[in-house]
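Morning run. Coffee first, then this:
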Amino acid sequence: MPLLEIRNVTKRFDNFTAVDNISLSIKAGEFFTLLGPSGCGKTTLLRMIAGFDAPDAGQILLDGEDIIGMPPEKRPIHTVFQSYALFPHMTVAGNIAFPLKMAGKTANQIKISVNEALENVHLSKFANRYPHELSGGQKQRVAFARGLINRPRLLLLDEPLGALDEKLRQDMQMELINLQKEVGVTFIFITHSQNEALALSHRIAVMNQGAVEQIDEPSKIYSCPANRFVANFVGKINLMNAQVLEATASHLTLKVDGLGTVTVPGKDDVKVNDEGVMAIRPEQVKIAHYAENERPAPYCIGKVQDFLYIGDVTTYIIALDNGVHLEALLPNSTPGLAKLFEINDTVAVNWLPDSAQFLKN
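And here it is:
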């Protein structure tokens, strides 16, 4: 039995449907992420799980019990917000101890639990400091410790790393993964950052306009997106309009705008004349200096129109002879070289046959 089960949950605000008949289940000990653009309904869904909002329809089951109607303070669920929500007049230890005091624990129980929590988040030396004396990352760790202090069944994290700078955010991602492993509490994490979701999660639910587009492991969300929205939202991808000319179990033959006939792996529920896009990730597009005697298939010729150098990799924008533009991502693995190709270089472009895929409209 899943720890948490969302059954046909809907939430409306006047004429706007924020969450539209969503169903999903989350296992105990899972790091589950709700990923989507602003306004997709992920925070509204989290607020209903926490008990801050009530759904207009559906059920929310925790350990098989419907918790709709149960007040937030009675639910074995804690929430960590982006704003930290620490009490400024309390020390770090006082902030962490607060939920235990509200639960009526003894002074000795509180002391033991707080010391353990401080150790878990590497803040033992900061127990007597106040929030204004802490860095952003330290405040975030205090918020995590307070949320986990009485071992809730669920910890809800609403964009908890959104206020941190990029380097600190990456460090905190590793801390979150380790913390979740150590305490074994189920995490439901909200973010609009695709990289963050891919790095942290056991499973991801990609949301759009109040609905769930796909639920799967990060690697499958990235490599096998269910539709055009998921492909376009999660990571960078080249999308080219295509129509199916032939459909078998092993392969599809596509007519691709600007590329002609291209073969991609077969896919269920696709038939001749279906329209959609051929999708291929930039890191799967191979480019090389043009040589007339080398023509691996699929093969086309283009020119480097622009590039974006970001240290470890460079993204090249390739304008093909037929007018199509493709992005190719290459690692900068040669010492001392900032880029491998210059603007206006003529390049040969190809990819492995099973790298591209067809997505229906």
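The domain at 283-351 is CATH 2.40.50.100 (OB fold (Dihydrolipoamide Acetyltransferase, E2P)). Good start to the day.
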